[in-house]
Write a structure and sequence with these properties.
This protein is α+β, with helices and mostly antiparallel strands and about 170 residues long. The chain folds into 2 domains: about 55 residues, Double Stranded RNA Binding Domain (2-Layer Sandwich); about 80 residues, no CATH class. The chain contains 8 helices and 5 strands; from the N terminus they run αβαββααββαααα. A hairpin with a 4-residue loop joins β2 and β3. α6 crosses α7. The longest helix has 19 residues.
Length: about 170
Amino acid sequence: MTHPASLDTKTLLGECDVRFTRRSGPGGQNRNKVETAAILTHRPTGTIAEANERRSQSENRDQALFRLRLKLALEIRTARSVESVPSPLWRSRSKGGRLTLSPHHEDFPGMLAEAMDVLELEGGDVRAAAERLDVSTTQLTRFLKDEPRAIIRVNEDRRSRGLHPLH
């Protein structure tokens, strides 16, 4: 099963209700008179993301979509088979056990979802998850730290399992 954060843009938008509205604040008349703020609601999960800092509807929609992907990566777990890990996407971004990916890149949410799913599969064991993903424990930990909410969730999960938090 494909994680919703990894879906292509057309498919993911097809699963969303998209609304545009006005927001107040800096930006002049355009911001106050034109419906440029984008609000996306992922129907299957009820997850909502919003963006309103740009003056363009399409730029705000794209930013809201990225935020939605991140929220889905953090909140939704999908069952992964041992044989399907690492995914082709993960392999393409991992060279020699090193991850080469900016947290602002469009592939980041899908890879974060995979890392979180594999951690769940391995019972919160970062070493086992890193081995399964063919990266070092340090690389996986650094990758998780690129999204502060991810490392917080991982540490909460590890504490609930009686494991030490990651540093």
